[in-house]
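Sample pair:
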Amino acid sequence: MFKPQILFFFIIIFLLFFSACNKAKLEDVEALTNEEVFPAEIAKDIEFTFSDSGKVKGILLAPLMESYQGSAPYREMKKGLTVTFYNNNIPSSFLRANYGIQHINKKLIEVKGNVVVVNTNNDTLTTEQLFWNQRKAKVYSEKYVRVRRKNEIIKSQGFESDPEFKEYKFYDIRGVINLKETEDEE
């Protein structure tokens, strides 16, 4: 028969061995998941044309674009971008940002960092983050936005528009400054 001390000794050795195996497996999993993701393609000074049914919808310019593959492919523009949007082959709006990412399968583009959008009426939107949902043909932000129009400035927390930035609405308006009244007072 086994003495209790010997049985206890075997149990301790078994537990140490079992925990060492689990620890090694955990380290292997961490090593696999911590691997860096590298771009499949890198392009410099790019001009990328978006089109639908043979009509140009936009032209994107970026000093650097990195494309990533996998189950959720995306393109990243870490050094900024500018986009000219077209309606019937006529420029309808312009966008500039410090950073952009296009989620290809989701048909969603996010831009951030000193985002500026200008339309043909010279209305100018500034914000820190903006999304363009290509499937829904909708541009929106939940961040603070400022829109300067001919006779007013509108400040809001949240915004939604068509891609041409012609029809837009604001959420949680924080202030409206009537520029015509301000000029008349001077």
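Residues 4-33 form the longest helix (30 residues).
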